[in-house]
Amino acid sequence: YQGLDLSGYSLDNPAPPLPHDTELNKSRLKLVSDLVERNNLTLREFYLAVATARGHRTVVGTPEQIADSMQEWFENGAADAFNIMPPILPTGLTDFVDQVVPILRKRGLFRHEYEGTTLRENLGLRRPPNSFALQAHRVPEARIAG
Fold first, then answer.
1. pLDDT at position 19, please?
2. Backbone region of residue 72 per phi and psi (left: phi > 0; alpha: psi in -120 to 50; beta: other values)
3. pLDDT of amino acid 101
4. What is the pLDDT of residue 107?
5. Which end of the chain has fewer CB within 10 Å, C or N?
6. Alpha-carbon distance 27 to 12, whole Å?
7. Could you report the per-residue pLDDT of 32-52, keeping only the tens digit for each?
8. How confident is the prediction for the chain on average, in pLDDT?
């Protein structure tokens, strides 16, 4: 956070409390503050946690532990969807799909198949009119001069 002078702190001492008197990124500030307080992080640990996860919540563990964490957040209303950002692609994503998704499916938390055949249908969006399709135009009646 800009304006926070950390020059008087050692990287290996506990991170100081973050300021809460901001109007910007309040949800991100809460997430980061909770991370620091819950884990009693040093500045070095804080930097590594935020730098590697880009400030997002990180879950590390067995497939069951990851599924447990996602289920807890979902069932308690803390999240209604998740963005998965594996540290290594494509293997991290493949591991998630092959190991965590089956657990979530068994628990009824992840669908087995989609109802629609397109992303638009699965998002419940109407198909927009085709601007290139011919539209029925009323042809004006011919006038006969007379």
1. 76
2. alpha
3. 98
4. 98
5. C
6. 26
7. 888 888 889 888 888 777 766
8. 84
Those residues with Cβ within 8 angstroms of residue 83's Cβ, 6 or more apart along the chain or in another chain: 56
Q: Helical H runs in the chain? A: 26-39, 43-53, 63-75, 91-95, 101-106, 119-122
Q: 84-92 long-range CB contacts below 8 Å, 24 or more apart?
A: 85/53, 85/54, 85/56, 87/52
Report the distance separating Cα 67 and Cα 59, nearest Å: 10
| Contact call for residues 43 and 10 (beta carbons, < 8 A) | yes
What is d(CA 72, CA 39) in angstroms, rounded to the nearest whole number? Answer: 19
| Count of residues making up the chain | 146
Residue 67 near residue 75, CB atoms below 8 Å: no
Distance (Å, whole) CA 117 – CA 122: 7
Residues 12 and 42 sit within 8 Å (Cβ to Cβ): yes
For the chain, how far is it from start to end, CA to CA, in angstroms?
83
- Phi then psi for residue 14, to 5 deg, are -55, 140
51-92 pLDDT, tens digit each: 666 667 778 789 999 999 999 999 999 888 898 988 777 888
